[in-house]
Design a protein that fits this description.
76 residues, two-stranded antiparallel sheet, 2 helices
């Protein structure tokens, strides 16, 4: 899994050569016009890649389970 930043130039995404291969499927997060984009520092990019790898390995927690655990922890 890669985290890439691209710029739109003449209606096309401009990426450094070799970052994607023909036929690759990508997912884009595009901020609304009135929103600023976001930038991740190197440590945050590492954390994001690790989280994506965990999700791909199905090492996830059900959302309801997480909320129940947080509620129980807050109740003390």
């Amino acid at each position: 899994m890669k985290v890439l930043t691209a710029k739109v130039v003449d209606g096309r995404l401009e990426l450094p050569k070799g970052t994607l291969h023909e036929g690759d499927t990508v997912t884009l997060l595009v901020p609304d016009r009135d929103e600023e984009g976001f930038h991740l520092c190197d440590d945050q990019q590492v954390d994001l890649r690790e989280a994506i790898a965990e999700a791909e390995r199905s090492e996830t927690v059900d959302g309801r389970q997480l909320l129940d655990e947080l509620t129980a922890a807050a109740a003390g």
